[in-house]
Write a structure and sequence with these properties.
Elements lengths: L1 H18 L14 E3 L9 E9 L7 H18 L4 E4 L7 E8 L4
Parallel strand pairs: 1-3
Antiparallel strand pairs: 2-4, 3-4
Length: 106
C-alpha cells in the first residue's frame, strides 16, 4: 500500500509543478512596495541600491516566475527600507535585477 501512496504524492507534486503555481508569498511590509516602470517616476527619490531576485523555473510558466520574482524583490526592498522598485532589465533564467528607492517617506 505504501508504494501507491508515495506514487500518488509524487504525481501530485509533478502536477503542481506543471501547472505553475507561485511559491513566494507577500509580507505585510512588501505589500506597500510599489513597482514602477518608468525612471521618471523615481527621479526625485533616494536610490537605496540594487537587488537581484532569483527563483527556480522548474517547468513553470513565465507568468508565475515573473510573479515570484516581483514578490521576492518587493520583500527584499521592504527589508532595506525601500518603498519603490523598478526593474533594471527583463527576467532571464529565473533572475531579475531591480533598483530600490525610497520615494514616499524620504
Amino acid at each position: 500500500m505504501k508504494p501507491k501512496q508515495t506514487l500518488s504524492f509524487a504525481s501530485l507534486f509533478a502536477l503542481l509543478l506543471a501547472t505553475g503555481c507561485t511559491y513566494v508569498s507577500q509580507t505585510p511590509e512588501s505589500h506597500s512596495v510599489r513597482v514602477v516602470s518608468a525612471k521618471t517616476e523615481v527621479a526625485r527619490c533616494k536610490h537605496l541600491g540594487r537587488i537581484t531576485a532569483s527563483v527556480p523555473k522548474l517547468m513553470r510558466s513565465e507568468r508565475f516566475v515573473q510573479e515570484d520574482l516581483l514578490t521576492l524583490a518587493r520583500k527584499n526592498a521592504a527589508k532595506h527600507g525601500a518603498d519603490t522598485i523598478i526593474a533594471v532589465g527583463a527576467p532571464a533564467g529565473g533572475e531579475q535585477t531591480f533598483d530600490m528607492y525610497r520615494c514616499l517617506r524620504p
